């Protein structure tokens, strides 16, 4: 049964000071009082009849607030979901202003789920496509030289490293091996690439190219651009220096100093004359630049070289030479006399430049005394060097002896002073104690007892070079190399000069056959080298010849040129080494005597490889010397030592690369053929 109405309305107190964001609407009307809902009452039981109503709740007397609607997470406006109106209503419910005119744009809804799902998928797809765009061509390019790569116009892109190397060797060799024409004072000569020591380094060239698995940048370059590489070239400076020396020998005109010598009793005058010399250092630089930068020509410079002797000094020396042979010179010691006739004076007297513009007399007293010293000194008193003689195939020691003899240096000075004056021409001679140059103690007890190394080479008879070979052999005969001593052929023999008995002969210098004093002595150096080689002695310095000659053993020849190219070997034994030489009109032999350390020494040779054909040229140059062509090749030689029937050691392998020697045909400029 419904409760009876009291007929009065109960007013609840006004609530002030609500927290921010809390609307008064939750309490009823705009003023905060509880208001009944407007409009007709909903059908159904009244609030008073509802279970737990005022009666049940014991509120007594006042009207109850309307039933609270179901809770919603956000107030929903009448606008479309996601619209600005909807978002504004939601913001108003939270912020305390249901329909306020200002809304903050910072509070936007998160991106819709669909867009959040699509964007990562697109990014993944792009990454996959980029990887495929790189990996597919990268795999195709891997293991080869990067596409678009070329060397001096020769395409090697896409080839393996081995294929690229073979292609460059085949197609680029002709380009990089082009000769250079050198011009010297209007005359032109050709320098071939091998003469300059030019080497094309294929490995270094290809190492500059990109290969292997390419990076993304490499792939892009391979697909869109080209890479041009320059061939890596190198110059063997030592070879080029030899070639320049050969050019210089053909073009140098040494300054000629004034000189007076005798032909019989007649003074022969050589007037001073200026000359020109090739600038060697400048020539090496210019030829190198021409080859490395593909320049076809190089102009080389001849520098003037002035003679110091004056014509006046030559005229004065000529007059003095005439007086020198006008009468004999008498040598006197006590009651003994010896005469130097005018012919002997003339044979051993010359007037040479003093380096200051004048000429001075030079008298070879030692040579002049050879024929007359026995008239002044008893032979039993003469000094003697210790040496060895080979008797019945065995070396026999000849002991040294201190003696008395004419002081040759003093005699040379006295004769030079006397011949320039008139009147008395008697020269007092003084004897002095002369000690032997080689004492017995120096060469005795050195174990010089047997042949340990011997070698022979042959040559053509009756040529100027034969004279030089025989002369060097005579100079060296009997020389002893002491234990631990390093033997130098240039230091022992000295410069090859006319005064020392040498003559002009042909010799290859820097790839060119030239005429020099002492030409041909490389054959003696080769003979001595092989004797020391099979004697088991240590090699110190040797320069192989540029070209192979059949009369020498391949890989075991020795070039000799004073003072630049020497032959040196060390006596690394505890015994002395005696050098004995013998020569005929067609051969020279060197024998080394010591104590044998090895049963046998062998030269093990490889097969000749890398043959290179020689070229043919025709020359009409003055002084042309015809040359037979010789093919080039490379050979290895290893020295092996045996003792007790077993190998005890072997030297490091020596590789010799012989250049092809051009065939030179000399043709007269007037000969149309």
UniProtKB/TrEMBL annotation:
Residues 54-63 have a biased composition (Gly residues). Residues 44-53, 82-92 have a biased composition (Low complexity). Keywords: Membrane, Transmembrane, Transmembrane helix. It comes from the Bacteria. This is VanW family protein. Residues 1-10 have a biased composition (Polar residues). It holds the Pfam family PG_binding_4. Residues 1-114 are annotated as: Disordered. It comes from Nonomuraea indica. InterPro entries: Glycopeptide_resist_protein, Vancomycin_resist_VanW, YoaR-like_PG-bd. Residues 193-294 form the YoaR-like putative peptidoglycan binding domain. The chain crosses the membrane at residues 122-146.
């Amino acid at each position: 049964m419904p409760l009876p109405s009291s007929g009065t309305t109960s007013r609840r107190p006004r609530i002030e000071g609500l927290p921010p964001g809390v609307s008064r609407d939750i309490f009823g009307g705009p003023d905060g009082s509880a208001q009944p809902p407007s409009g007709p009452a909903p059908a159904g039981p009244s609030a008073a009849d509802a279970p737990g109503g005022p009666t049940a709740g014991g509120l007594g007397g006042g009207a109850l607030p309307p039933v609270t609607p179901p809770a919603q997470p956000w107030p929903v406006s009448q606008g479309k979901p996601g619209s600005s109106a909807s978002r504004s209503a939601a913001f108003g419910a939270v912020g305390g202003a249901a329909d306020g005119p200002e809304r903050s744009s910072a509070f936007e809804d998160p991106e819709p789920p669909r867009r959040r799902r699509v964007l990562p998928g697109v990014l993944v797809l792009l990454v996959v496509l980029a990887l495929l765009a790189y990996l597919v061509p990268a795999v195709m390019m891997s293991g080869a030289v990067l596409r678009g790569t070329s060397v001096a116009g020769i395409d090697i892109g896409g080839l393996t490293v081995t294929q690229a190397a073979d292609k460059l060797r085949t197609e680029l060799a002709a380009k990089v091996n082009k000769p250079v024409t050198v011009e010297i004072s209007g005359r032109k000569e050709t320098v071939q690439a091998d003469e300059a020591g030019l080497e094309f380094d294929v490995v270094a060239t290809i190492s500059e190219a990109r290969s292997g698995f390419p990076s993304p940048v490499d792939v892009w370059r391979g697909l869109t651009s080209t890479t041009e590489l320059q061939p890596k070239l190198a110059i063997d400076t030592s070879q080029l220096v030899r070639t320049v020396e050969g050019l210089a020998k053909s073009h140098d005109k040494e300054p000629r100093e004034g000189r007076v010598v005798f032909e019989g009793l007649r003074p022969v005058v050589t007037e001073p004359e200026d000359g020109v010399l090739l600038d060697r250092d400048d020539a090496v630089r210019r030829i190198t630049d021409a080859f490395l930068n593909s320049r076809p020509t190089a102009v080389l410079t001849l520098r003037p070289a002035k003679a110091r002797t004056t014509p006046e000094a030559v005229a004065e020396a000529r007059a003095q030479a005439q007086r020198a042979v006008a009468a004999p010179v008498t040598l006197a010691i006590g009651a003994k006399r010896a005469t130097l006739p005018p012919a002997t004076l003339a044979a051993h007297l010359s007037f040479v430049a003093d380096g200051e513009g004048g000429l001075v007399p030079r008298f070879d007293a030692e040579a002049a005394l050879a024929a007359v010293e026995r008239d002044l000194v008893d032979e039993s008193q003469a000094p003697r060097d210790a040496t060895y003689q080979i008797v019945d195939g065995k070396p026999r020691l000849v002991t040294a002896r201190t003696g008395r003899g004419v002081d040759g240096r003093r005699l040379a000075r006295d004769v030079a002073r006397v011949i320039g004056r008139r009147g008395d021409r008697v020269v007092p001679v003084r004897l002095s104690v002369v000690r032997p140059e080689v004492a017995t103690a120096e060469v005795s007890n050195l174990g010089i007892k047997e042949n340990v190394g011997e070698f022979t080479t042959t040559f053509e008879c009756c040529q100027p070079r034969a004279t030089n070979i025989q002369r060097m052999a005579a100079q060296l005969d009997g020389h002893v190399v002491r234990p631990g001593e390093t033997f130098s052929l240039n230091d022992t023999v000295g410069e090859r000069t006319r005064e020392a008995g040498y003559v002009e002969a042909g010799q290859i210098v820097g790839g060119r056959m030239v005429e020099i004093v002492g030409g041909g002595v490389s054959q003696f150096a080769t003979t001595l080298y092989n004797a020391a080689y099979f004697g088991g002695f240590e090699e110190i310095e040797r320069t192989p010849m540029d070209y192979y000659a059949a009369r020498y053993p391949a890989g075991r020849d020795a070039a000799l040129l004073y003072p630049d190219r020497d032959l040196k070997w060390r006596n690394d034994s505890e015994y002395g080494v005696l050098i004995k030489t013998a020569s005929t009109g067609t051969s020279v032999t060197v024998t080394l005597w010591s104590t044998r350390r090895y049963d046998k020494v062998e030269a093990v040779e490889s097969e000749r490889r890398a043959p290179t054909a020689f070229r043919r040229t025709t020359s009409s140059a003055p002084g042309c010397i015809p040359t037979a062509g010789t093919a080039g090749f490379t050979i290895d030689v290893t020295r092996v030592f045996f003792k007790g029937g077993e190998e005890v050691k072997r030297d490091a392998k020596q590789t010799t690369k012989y250049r092809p020697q051009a065939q030179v045909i000399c043709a007269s400029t007037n000969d149309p053929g």
